């Protein structure tokens, strides 16, 4: 395929590619008439609001995952190997909260979940359920 | 996104990110005849577009692509928002000098051909600009850009200038780029 001809988007992207240090960018914006104090205050507000909102969502997700956590422990006896590995992965990614995640990370420090036998996986998941119990309590 | 990733995102230098994004927005806006003080359609402003973009990111941070630098992703969103605003039916908007929007759509050429044609013309205007002519480094950089070298490393290779010098010259070109955009729009009407 022949190389694509450069276009206006390429030109603009090149011109804006360099990230200026804050002081230089602020100086330039002020010279163009921007009230940077008000602008940054609004940015800070939006970042803080966004962060708080996302933390609320994480807490809600963890709460609802914990509620379903009790049921997953009850289903271990009939779970397939793939389902247990997937469950272990979800636990280690923190879907059921940080306590479960930390326990999973400690367990698989030297091993990938796929290296565990079915019995090892099932026993560990049962144990972790017994030790941590219902995280809401 | 977990708490750790959110905290990492919050800890970024949002002052630097947003200041650079607003400067980028002002460059993207040139083709629509807008600048930092312009009233955009739907009561918007370039500042508002940048602020809205940052809110969007925080609304769905999981959509961020970890393989693409954040400023690049943000700039892409801003560019797209400006394009949509330019296409919006708000007729109460006054563009700089009442010049038409540089639209890349054309009856005879594909949008890609048209925007490549505009690029070539923009480069000609830059080369002819009194702010470039007679300034050796600017001439070299513009010549390299016109040949398609649109990365600092490529320009350094073509021109033999140091990367630091190229960044400096690019900043200078960026500062008077709006006048080139305005000339281009004037020609297109």
Largest sheet of chain A: none
Helix content of chain B: 55-70%
User: Got a strand count of chain B?
Assistant: 0
Order of helices and strands of chain A: HHHHHH
Counted by DSSP, the helix tally of chain A is 6
Largest sheet of chain B: none
Helical element count of chain B? 8
Q: Regions of chain B with pLDDT < 50 over 5+ consecutive residues?
A: 94-100
Write the layout of secondary structure elements.
The complex is a heterodimer of chains A (137) and B (189).
Chain A: H1 8-16, H2 22-31, H3 36-74, H4 81-92, H5 98-107, H6 118-132
Helix pairs in contact in A: 4-5, 4-6
Chain B: H1 3-10, H2 14-28, H3 46-59, H4 70-87, H5 111-128, H6 136-146, H7 152-159, H8 163-188
Supply database-style keywords.
heterodimer, A: 137 residues, mainly alpha, 6 helices, B: 189 residues, 2 domains, 8 helices, globular
Please outline what is shown here.
The complex is a heterodimer of chains A (137) and B (189). Chain A has helices spanning 8-16, 22-31, 36-74, 81-92, 98-107, 118-132.
């Amino acid at each position: 395929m022949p190389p694509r001809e450069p276009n206006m988007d390429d030109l603009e992207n090149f011109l804006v590619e360099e990230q200026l240090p804050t002081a230089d960018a602020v100086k330039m914006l002020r010279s163009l008439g921007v009230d940077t104090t008000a602008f940054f205050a609004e940015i800070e507000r939006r970042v803080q609001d966004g962060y708080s909102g996302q933390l609320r969502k994480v807490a809600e997700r963890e709460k609802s995952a914990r509620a379903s956590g009790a049921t997953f422990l009850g289903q271990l006896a009939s779970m397939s190997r793939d389902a247990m590995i997937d469950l272990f992965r979800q636990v280690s990614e923190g879907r059921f909260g940080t306590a479960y995640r930390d326990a999973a990370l400690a367990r698989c420090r030297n091993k990938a979940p796929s290296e565990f036998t079915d019995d090892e996986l099932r026993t560990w998941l049962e144990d972790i359920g017994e030790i941590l119990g219902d995280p809401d309590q | 996104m977990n708490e750790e990733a959110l905290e990492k995102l919050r800890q970024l230098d949002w002052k630097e990110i947003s200041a650079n994004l607003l400067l980028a927005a002002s460059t993207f806006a040139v083709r629509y005849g807008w600048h930092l003080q312009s009233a955009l359609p739907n009561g918007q402003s370039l500042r508002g577009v940048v602020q809205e973009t940052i809110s969007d990111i925080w609304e769905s941070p999981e959509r961020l692509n970890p393989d693409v630098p954040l400023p690049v992703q943000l700039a892409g969103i801003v560019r797209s928002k400006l394009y949509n605003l330019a296409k919006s039916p708000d007729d109460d908007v006054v563009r700089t000098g009442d010049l038409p929007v540089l639209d890349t759509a054309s009856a005879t050429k594909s949008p890609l051909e048209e925007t490549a044609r505009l690029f070539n013309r923009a480069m000609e205007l830059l080369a002819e600009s009194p702010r470039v002519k007679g300034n050796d480094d600017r001439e070299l950089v513009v010549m390299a850009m016109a040949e398609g070298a649109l990365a600092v490393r490529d320009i350094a290779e073509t021109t033999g200038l140091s990367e630091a010098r190229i960044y400096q010259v690019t900043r200078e070109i960026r500062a008077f780029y709006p006048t080139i955009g305005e000339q281009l729009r004037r020609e297109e009407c």
